[in-house]
Amino acid sequence: MSKKTSKYETLKMMCHIPAPSGNEVVMKQFLLYYIKENSKNWKTKPKIYIGKGFQDNIVLIFGKPRTAIFAHMDNIGFTVRYGKQLVKIGGPVIRSGIKLIGQDSKGVQEVDLQVIDDKKTGAKKLEYKGKRNFETGTELTFKPNWREDKEFIQCCYMDNRLGVYNALKVAETLKNGAIVFSTWEEHGGGSVNYLQRFLHEKYKISQALISDISWISDGVHYAKGPVISIRDSLIPRRSYVNKIIGIAQKNKCAFQFEVEGSGGSDAGPLQMSENPWDWCFVGAAEENVHSPDEKVHKKDIEGMIKLYEVLMREL
Fold first, then answer.
1. pLDDT computed for residue 120 by the predictor
2. How far is residue 284 CA from its own chain's centroid?
3. How does DSSP assign 148-212, residue by residue?
4. What is the rounded distance in angstroms from the CA atom of residue 148 to the CA atom of residue 1?
């Protein structure tokens, strides 16, 4: 990486902040500090909802919102069980030798992930190799290794620090809209269930964009723009997706279509809620999903920000 300060310094900092599902407090604190320091220069100063009734989530309201952006703050990782045993948080890649880092009352320790074949059951057991045992319940996350060149950025937790970064960039020029920084998405969700109710009842919002990261695949390629997802494990309402496609085409925004049969996001609780929500997953695609080496093309990052700015203005 160049010795010059990266344009993506905020994204880099967020990729170095551990926020495993259920323990997003440090990420929340960073975002609140960032919002306090930068919102004075935004086109519209948002109303901030935090604290009682919102747990570790953050809701920003700009002007008279019609559409909400949902970006989850949490990441995958591992929980120390007993001794050197590990339990997955979400669906991380498991491979012996992956560097993990964690902190308990005795301090910070870097360890190696160990994948062990259980000869009795045939299952794979997860352990860590380190100088000492962590305290039971300690969360371990991938050790960050930021790599950047003219075209690509690579690090752990681009999913979903990039989705959060996108929301922060859109906030700079947003006049009317809501931004939700949610929790628990990587491990079953839960927070969007009550956050959507708050937005629907207080602000009458019923449409959303999911600011999250997708996959490079046989039909999704680098530097072709963010994906507009027609479906993953869930299927959004096609008339809403078509409206998004029409706005993107009218404004000459680069994008790709995505069609998958698996995968999920904060859209799940919206579709299953008691309130009628339209939603669409719109985001840059990465390689090496849920690994320490998640890789995204810079053109797709910039295209994602541009597309969101247009959608939040016209939806």
1. 80
2. 11
3. E-SSEEEETTHHHHHHHHHHHHHHTT-SSEEEEEE--GGGT--HHHHHHHHHHHHH---EEEE--
4. 5
Containing structural domain, residue 135: 77-142
Contact 179, 60 (CB under 8 A): yes
**How many other C-beta atoms can be found within 10 angstroms of the C-beta atom of residue 178?**
26
Residue 1 lies in a domain: no
pLDDT in tens, 19-44: 999 999 999 999 999 999 999 999 99
**CA pair distance 302, 299, nearest whole angstrom:** 5
- Both tokens assigned to 196: 């959507």
Low pLDDT (below 50) residues in the chain: 1-2
- Pair 123, 153 in one domain: no
Largest CA distance in the chain: 62
pLDDT score recorded for residue 175: 98
The per-residue pLDDT for range 234-279, each reduced to its tens digit, is 999 999 999 999 999 999 999 999 999 888 899 999 999 999 999 9
Report how far Cα 109 is from the mean position of its chain's Cα atoms: 25
DSSP calls for 11-69: HHHHHTS--BTT--HHHHHHHHHHHHHHGGGSSSPPEEEEETTTEEEEEEEESS-S-EE
Measured between alpha carbons, how far is 236 from 240 in angstroms, rounded to an integer?
A: 8
- Name the domain boundary from 126, 142, 158: 142
Exposure of 1 by Cβ count < 10 A (0-12 exposed, 13-18 middle, 19+ buried)?
A: exposed
The SS3 of residue 165 is helix
Domain total of the chain: 2
